[in-house]
Amino acid sequence: MVTPLKQLDALWRRGKEFLGTEYAVLGGAMTWVSERNLVSSLSNAGGFGVIACGAMTPDLLDAEIQATAVLTDKPFGVNLITIHPQLDELIDICLKQKVGHIILAGGLPSKHAIDRAKKGDAKVVCFAPTLGLAKRLIRQGADALVIEGSEAGGHIGPVSTSILAQEILPHVEDVPVFIAGGIGRGDAILAYLEMGASGCQLGTLFVCATESIAHQNFKKAFIRASARDAAPSVQLDPQFSVIPVRALQNEATKEFQKIQRDVIDAFDRGELDQSEAQLKIEHFWAGALRRAVVTGDIDTGSLMAGQSVGMVTEEKPVADIIACLLAEAVDALISRKP
Asked: What's the Cα-to-Cα distance from 32 to each of 109, 257, 262, 272, 286, rounded to whole Å?
């Protein structure tokens, strides 16, 4: 007799084998949060931790990888931002440290970057925002894809997770595909696995893990929040672009709209040219994520969070979070039995 646990195991076997893990649960890379402590805890609990490189220098990344390896002997990956000015050096650091999986995010990676990582025997994971780009990335050598919908926290695209999954999953069979964005329960993971996904990526759900170094103020904001509190940034004028970022609404998000209005008015009066005005708008959020995560300034900092934040209700160990996801997936399978 095939037990529900064995059914689940079969559904995400491809993802497990690709990651080299017990469960095909990929940790979403969150700057200032996804560091050695959370990453190693995810891997030790059977998932796949991912270091968020962000704006780190090669030397800092080198030290972070080494520190993570001291805390776990399980596989973990590194998320690199494709627009980082030292991307080649960062890839080389990952290869030197024998990182098995490099996730290229924050824009479409060049074939050069993919080739550089693969020549060093790393598996390359890329984000695919459309079916056409998914096929292109596979042709360029991507070993796996992440489909991330607009319910995710941080920088987001315009299309929801469920729509992207329907558009892409039926047409991509060559590589494993991981689904991300707004996933907070095991039965949701199960649903995407049954649609053809090889696993799922979760970030917001792990912010309040006991092992997470995020400031207690940051964690408390997550625990208090509902899904509706995690909203995308608002652009007031099409002349001045605002990168869509999903975050909890706070005093800073209100102030950002006021700043936009003031800058637009100054531009209309001829006091600023367009490039000066754009720069003032972009400068508003400089350092804001660090202020919130590291120093606990939840009023003027950026509280990047996905809509699954409403399912974060307490601080608990990573192992307990993963155990809960497994139980929810298994319970969903059991409930189908006659």
From this structure: 23, 25, 31, 34, 14
